[in-house]
Amino acid sequence: MPLMTSWVPGANSPDTDFPLNNLPYGVFSTDEMDERCGVAIGDMIFDCARAEEEGLIALSDSPLFDVPFWNEVMEAGPEVWAALRARLVELLGDEANRDAVAPLLVPMAEAVLHMPMLVSEYTDFYAGRHHATNVGTMFRGAENALPPNWLHIPIGYNGRASSVVVSGTDVRRPWGQLKSPDHDLPAFLPCRRFDLELEMGAIVGTASEGPVTVTEANEMIFGYVLLNDWSARDIQAWEYQPLGPFQAKATATTISPWIVTRAALEPFKCDTPEREFELLDHLKDAGPMLYDIDLRVTLAPEGKPATEIAHTNYREMYYSSAQQLAHHTTSGCPMTPGDLLGSGTISGAEKHERGSLLELSWGGKEPLTLDSGETRTFLEDGDTLTLTGAALGDGYRIGFGPCTGKVLPALEDPYAR
Amino acid sequence: MPLMTSWVPGANSPDTDFPLNNLPYGVFSTDEMDERCGVAIGDMIFDCARAEEEGLIALSDSPLFDVPFWNEVMEAGPEVWAALRARLVELLGDEANRDAVAPLLVPMAEAVLHMPMLVSEYTDFYAGRHHATNVGTMFRGAENALPPNWLHIPIGYNGRASSVVVSGTDVRRPWGQLKSPDHDLPAFLPCRRFDLELEMGAIVGTASEGPVTVTEANEMIFGYVLLNDWSARDIQAWEYQPLGPFQAKATATTISPWIVTRAALEPFKCDTPEREFELLDHLKDAGPMLYDIDLRVTLAPEGKPATEIAHTNYREMYYSSAQQLAHHTTSGCPMTPGDLLGSGTISGAEKHERGSLLELSWGGKEPLTLDSGETRTFLEDGDTLTLTGAALGDGYRIGFGPCTGKVLPALEDPYAR
């Protein structure tokens, strides 16, 4: 699909994340305006709340956009999602609408971006084969790297929705109970192996009650965000047996501010990799449901320039978000609009394609050298991490905006009041 | 503390779950009335929404009770919790209020009970030593029964809030991916080892942002319910490594309809058991925070009388809910009013005191014989399970109402539409 042109400043630039082909959904405020729903286009944000108030968008009897979350639109259902996208293309693409629409554009530089949604529940998966193999090799040896179930089901665990934050939120290094290999007993200490996980997040847009097929699951997905699942590796190592990660993953999970819709990503669909075992019927691929999304991570020490530490692609995943969501419903687990599904860490086959410092530094044994000359095994206080991602079209990109966060030092005494 | 007497019918009976000492919070409706907040007292429910409307309760500028959940009261904070309890004791205890209050009482027999709260997030723990030892012995042998971390932290995992249902809700046997020991590959089948877990649920009433102490955590708890964490053991066995239980625990978790407040349970506080290792400071006991609550489970096959299959006590737990909640916040994980914390399965030292069929039938090897002569290893279709619990005072009981659910057969084809 070629670039769709828009009259909005910056929208036709090959460098923008937000051409007319994209139209991602976010929540913004300015000095004059309360939080509300908006759409990114070029260098601007289109104020959907005002557009609805003025009758330029009329999709529902009750207002959908004058709220600080996109959940109302999700709940309005796929027909409204399609009608909204069609109307936005009309308003922002057709020069004839310029006079009516231009006053409703807010420069992105003047806006503050907020969480685009209320997160109902958060689930994180472990569905990248290179990542699972790398981590498994470090922990259990190359021959037992993948658990026996891994090639048959997308392994996942429930995370903590209350810990999901929007890009730009500082993340404080957590305390936790951990046990050094050279001590017999655990201690309560600040995390020493604080890490990122480069992931995509799929947002569930429609509810389900019983099990759903992979095709139905795909249609339930409202859109995608970038996701950094901050991970305290030393806390995780001590706590995770036998019931999985808990506090190690509960400090924060950062998402990018713009929800890129499934419709915008449609031209970039691609297949999952070849299967070693045929999947059971209820999980079988039902067409291409992964996406070709170029993903990068940079790390900037305090006051220093950023170094790209990883470069990979979402198509590396073994399971699509649709397959993960289908698996999530097998037991009858009800899904809710606003549920967020982390893809699992996305790593490629090459060293530079690894989506976590655990893998990049091979468990801390092979420090990375940054452009500034400093080295890193895990994150240091003051480090700023930035995830970026885009589906790359011919002369344009469908971007997500940055997913960034800075590591603040641990509190001196977490119980001081 | 002796029985506090009430003028309400049935409230002074030694058999009622709901004397004036209790005053638990629920949500009810009748043929004439929409769902609203009410308080159980004897054989009646006191209609708080009407009491507020008529000015008999006046604790807030905005209405607290004309909604189908107690989250508004939780968010109003501990001073309002205390004022509400004091006012209820006045209204329902003092004969002088009889004329004003009697018209606001609804016979419990005419009411339908609903979920008492919106569950924000659901966490389940694994904090009963007998249960963990039993399960660990079956899976890993007696010498490795307890994982190395177990005596140092209350092990927990995030569950699925959307799957929490109120007592009386039928529970359909789930399908899932599982692997028989005698097969090389997994299959997608109805669960064959469907089980209960007898637990208490603690309800978080106030929000937190950073780590909280055990004392602070205790004060955050709004009240307690009975909780049955339905568990698909065969699905769990295949899926739970390495990231913990997922679909095995997502079919349903049933809670009792009445939230018994911390204030009502205060006279029944008791200590946790002796510690094998001293707990780290942030988890140390800060006074008695477990409760002496007598707990029973009955199983009734379809059309047959019920057999008591377990009888134990909440005081058997190794960690209190306050300790679990304190641990939950160590990483900075934000807690929210409406969060539900499952205690973990409550088992005592004796065979009859075990809170799951997995333990009662020792992994299916020692079938239970019911009063009807039938035997059980795991649950059969049509079985009705009922959990009951009460703190036993002198001539009265602080009860929870039953926590019940019937097992429906698995769907023939879960994807048929």
Report the helical percentage of chain A: 10-25%
Let me know the CATH homologous superfamily of the largest domain in chain A.
Answer: Fumarylacetoacetase-like, C-terminal domain
- The separation of the N and C termini of chain A measures 57 Å
**What would CATH call the architecture of the largest domain in chain A?**
Alpha-Beta Complex
Instruction: Identify the biggest protein-protein contact and residues per side.
Output: A-B, 62 and 62 residues
CATH topology call of the largest domain in chain A: Fumarylacetoacetate hydrolase, domain 2
Number of strands of chain A: 27
pLDDT < 50 runs, ≥5 residues of chain A:
none
Please summarize the sheet with the most strands of chain A. 8 strands, mixed
Query: What is the rounded Rg of chain A?
Result: 21 Å
Look at the structure and give the mean pLDDT of chain A: 97
Structural class of chain A: alpha+beta
User: How large a portion of the residues of chain A is in β-strands, by DSSP E?
Assistant: 25-35%
For the record, the CATH class of the largest domain in chain A is Alpha Beta
Q: What's the quaternary structure here?
A: homodimer
